[in-house]
Structures are given as C-alpha cells and as structure tokens.
Please model this.
Amino acid sequence: MLAKRIIPCLDIKDGATVKGINFLGLQNVGDPVELGRKYASEGADELVYLDISATLEGRKTFARLVERIAERIDIPFTVGGGISTLEDAAALLRAGADKVTVNSAAVRNPSLVDGIASKYGSQFVVVAIDAARRDGRWCVTTHGGSRDSGRELFHWAREAAERGAGEILFTSMDHDGTKNGYPCDVFAELCDMLTVPVIASGGAGTAAHIAEVLTAGKADAALAASIFHYNEIPIPELKRYLAEKGIPVRL
Model:
C-alpha cells in the first residue's frame, strides 16, 4: 500500500500566510517560505500554497513568491490561486512549482484542465473543489466559497479526472477551519468513484480526525492548516500516531 501523505496547506493573502474559519476572520500566521521550511524539516510530504484572494480580487499568484519557495524548500509543493489560463500555469511551473491547482477557472472553463494536462501531463495538475452541502446536495462553489457554481461535487470530480486531473483536492466548506473532523462518508464515496488520488481538506482538529479520513474516508492524503500553524499537532507526533494505528506513512 502506498504511503499516505500529510500536506500542510498555506493560504496566502498579500504575501503572508493566513488562516480563518470558512475563509473569514483571517489572521496572519507567518511567512510562507519560513513556514514551508519548518514543515519540510518536520517531515511534511508535500506543501500546498493557495492564494485565497487571487481569484476573488482578479489577481494572479505571484511567480516571485514561487521562486523563493523553490529556492528554499526541498519537498514537492503545489501552487494555486488565480490560475485561469495555460500561460498562468506555465509561469508558475517555470518558477519552480511541482504542480498547479485550478479551481474557479476550471469550473468556468473545464478545457483548462485538458490544456494543462495535455501540455505538461496529468501529474502536474490538481483540480481543487470547494463544495458545501445545500438541501441534501453537495454544491460546488467558487471564488473562495462565495458563489454557487451550479455544479455538483461528484459529477464535477468525475469530469475533472476524465479531463486529465492527476489529483482531486476536495475541501468541505462546511467543515473548513472548524476542527470538527472531515465528512468521511463523502470522501469514501468520492474515492470509490475515482481512479485518481483524493486529497482530503477541511476540518482537521485532532490526529484521530486525520486517521479517520485516511481509513474510513479512504483518502490518499490529508491536508490541514490550523493544527500545524498553531502547533497543535506537530507533524512528527502526527505521523507517529498514524503509524501506531497501522496507517502507512513516511517517517
């Protein structure tokens, strides 16, 4: 069995790492490069950097920050935020990102996924899906969770994978930042349906939550922010806990 991955997520706004609940009430939690170095030294398998205001405010993720990250960090990292064209993705990959993640722009223009996958390969493109449960249906949202796209989670995830997404990063907007756990039944259904890896995001508060989404939720990786940013669960401690539970991780 492949090792499960632990992925700290660094939400970026105006060049700083921030964290809030449901993308609101944001607080500055540190320099993105230095935090990334810290997590890499502690055993993080990968990092994800998301410019959470780029799409909403019509800006692009700054390639210069990506260059700084690539110069200082020696584990794979994914960058997203404001990527709306093949040229945007190309600039970030040239700057040193290992993968790019697309969200709102891919919902609006699904052929963007095909384009990146065709040019660079599926392993370079992650489709991030933010969804919220409304009237018994998981609705895909865009622009930092502020707009309902009209798409449904499972249909869009399947289409994204068929178009060439190498991974799906699903965030439950109902759980993001709450530390109340992941919706494991939804992740299990998603993982059973797809043939590409699924990264679980939104709701980690304890090591047990992460163990649950990697087992009952069948996720290939767990992404979290608050518990790492506030040093509530150090990565080495988390990985030891997972290993003790029989979950394969890289120690």
